[in-house]
Write a structure and sequence with these properties.
four-stranded antiparallel beta sheet; 5 helices; 23% helix; cytoplasm; transferase
């Protein structure tokens, strides 16, 4: 299945490679990352084109893996019109029908940061985001651009989850989701709900895809992405159906 080709050429942009560093997902491997020069201040069209080529956003930076000896990171996306929620996912949507959802600009909010810090301390104390800080949060998840959004999930006014995403011309790009790890909320599967909510929002907006970032077959932390079917993968410059075994 072919994708729409990028409408705006990117050949004149400048890119930089990082030095090899420890891979965040596969133990014992080194990774190299290709970054768009942050001084380029890409237009909306450039971001749209780079997203089709597998680039992601983190803060102000657009990047993608560029490792010489490894191609384990695969860009994946959900084709919105072809997606059909599983029985489990339909039950999950019904279970969370009492939540209210609000879209906001991706600006700093103390309430968001408090939830983020609690989430990182509780769920990722062994990761590279620990310890959380205001500066780390701002650099990672805030951006004063019209395409950068935050989707809030509230239960009777209580903030229980936030999903950062970008609204592109050809889809929504999921950036990061954090949520309240309280035991009484576990059955709500708020991380999965965030993806389903982006699919529903893309459908309402008439956007064809939801981009889920990178999927690594050997990485257990990314296994959840296989539950969204069908799933498409970037193969060179073309998107095609990804056949997975769940």
């Amino acid at each position: 299945m072919s994708s729409n080709a990028p409408r705006q050429p990117v050949r004149d942009l400048r890119f930089f490679l990082t030095v090899p560093h420890a891979c965040s997902y596969l133990a014992g491997r080194e990774a190299t990352t290709l970054f768009l020069d942050p001084q380029e201040a890409p237009s909306r069209g450039v971001y749209d084109a780079l997203a089709l080529l597998g680039f992601r956003r983190s803060g102000r930076h657009l990047y993608r893996p560029h490792c010489d000896t490894c191609n384990a990171c695969i860009s994946v996306r959900i084709p919105v019109e072809a997606f059909s929620p599983s029985r489990t996912q339909r039950k999950l949507l019904n279970r969370n029908a009492d939540l209210s959802l609000h879209v906001r600009p991706a600006l700093f909010d103390p309430e968001h940061y408090a939830l983020y810090a609690h989430y990182v301390r509780t769920r990722h104390a062994d990761g590279d985001m620990y310890p959380p800080s205001h500066e780390q949060y701002r650099t990672f998840l805030t951006l004063d651009q019209p395409y950068a959004r935050l989707l809030e999930f509230r239960l009777d006014g209580r903030l229980v989850a936030v999903s950062a995403f970008d609204q592109l011309e050809h889809g929504l790009s999921a950036i990061y989701t954090f949520f309240d790890p309280a035991p009484e909320l576990e059955r709500r599967s708020l991380g999965t709900l965030a993806v389903l909510s982006l699919v529903l929002r893309a459908h309402e907006l008439g956007l064809p895809h939801v981009y889920l970032g990178y999927w690594i077959r050997e990485c257990r932390k990314m296994a959840y992405k296989q539950s969204f079917q069908p799933l498409e993968m970037l193969d060179g410059r073309h998107w095609r159906r990804l056949i997975t075994t769940q």
